[in-house]
Amino acid sequence: SPRPRAPPAHRGLGKHAMERAKMLTGLGYVAFAADLYGDRTIATNQEKMGKLLGELRSDPIKLRARAQAALSTLAAQPQVDAKRLGAIGFCFGGATVLALARGGADMAGVVSFHGALETTAPAQPGAVKASVLVCNGADDPLIPPPHVVAFEEEMRKAGADWQVINYGGTLHSFTNPEAEAAGMAALRYNKQTDQRSWAAMTSFFAEVFAR
């Protein structure tokens, strides 16, 4: 079957996510890579990916529950300080960690890299406990400026501690060196933005975990 034309992160728990988990351990953190589809399922064609992704995209409560199960698994590990939890996500994973924050997950912070900002289950006033960092490509056609503005307004109304960094000259999937292999014009790896956003995440976690 032809490879699906979509960001690599939409296909399942793959190489990029596992590499980033290892990078987190290199910073001294305990890392857990969540398999949101289950059974290490990788969508190998457009139809399968559409079914798997659509099921979770259309039901943010189910998505949040799966992410919360992963978070609870991480928190239960003996080497983990359950009072200092964080989450990062890329593309669909970015939307997932934002769903956790919107739902009031008890976490220090979440970081979304080129994750969708729209939602049908917005944060309610006072609900967001985690600090929020969004790293976004300013020229990403999949996350246009109105989505960013709406997200910022949502966070204001929720009373959240939030940051949005827009990186100029940057499209979608900017952290993934294999982004362009998907054959979509909206996807492009950007080494400079990849490095800048990772540095922003590192600084963010150093701050929120020190509280």
β-strand percent reads 5-15%
Structure summary, number of beta strands: 4
Relative helix content: 25-40%
Q: Please identify the structural class as seen in this structure.
A: alpha/beta
Shape label: globular
Largest sheet: 4 strands, parallel
Architecture in CATH? 3-Layer(aba) Sandwich
Strand order of the largest sheet: 1-2-3-4
N to C succession of SSEs: HHHEHEEHEH
Output the CATH homologous superfamily.
Answer: Alpha/Beta hydrolase fold, catalytic domain
Count of separate DSSP helical elements: 6
Number of domains: 1
Computed Rg: 16 Å
The CATH class is identified as Alpha Beta
CATH fold label: Rossmann fold
Name the assembly state. single chain
Averaged pLDDT, please? Answer: 89
As residue ranges, the low-confidence spans are 1-6
CA distance, first residue to last residue: 49 Å
Output the keywords.
6 helices, single chain, 4 strands, four-stranded parallel β-sheet, Rossmann fold, alpha/beta, 39% helix
Would you kindly provide a written description of the structure presented here, covering whatever features stand out?
This protein has 211 residues and is an alpha/beta fold. It has one domain: 3-Layer(aba) Sandwich (Rossmann fold), CATH 3.40.50.1820. The protein has helices spanning 15-26, 46-57, 60-75, 92-102, 145-158, 191-208, and strands spanning 86-90, 109-113, 131-137, 162-167. Strands 1-2-3-4 form a four-stranded parallel sheet, with helices on both faces. Helix 3 (60-75) crosses helix 4 (92-102).
